[in-house]
Known about the structure:
Layout: E1 14-20, E2 26-33, E3 40-43, H1 53-56, E4 59-63, E5 88-91, E6 96-102, E7 114-122, E8 126-127, H2 136-141, E9 151-153, E10 157-160
Antiparallel strand pairs: 1-2, 2-6, 3-5, 3-8, 4-7, 7-9, 7-10
Amino acid sequence: MSSTSRPQLSAQDVSVELSSTTAPLTVQVTIRNYSPDQTFSFLTWDSPFDPQAINTGVLSVKDTQTGVELEGPGMKLNRQLPPPREELIEVKPGSSATRELGLASPWVPTDGKKYQLQMRGNWRGAWAKAASEVTDGELEAMGSDQLSSNAFESDLVEMHMQQ
């Protein structure tokens, strides 16, 4: 499939949303599919649903008072390829998927100050089809036959960071 014929993934189709929770050092992440007829499937690695998003740089943390973005460890994870099917998340037309992401990490402040959180990056795997239709070959390739635009950026959420 040529890059000009690949389906587009746009902000009109899919959004990543953050919201604070009542649990300390936890943020709720939602992937919402606005398309009326297209299912999307995503690999969780380096995505908003990656449990390591706080350490890999997918989640940014900015001090609201100073405007300074905190520098995280920027971890690079070695993962066994191809990704297992359990690492796919499917979002059907007009629906959403939600997970809570723990923010506890040695570099994350717990000083009670207010911080802005935002998710941004590129999907390592995004397909305009059901997860069951993603082939083993597509999982192995993770890039050759995916959606042509695979960036994501969430809204901002402000949180008091305390344990």
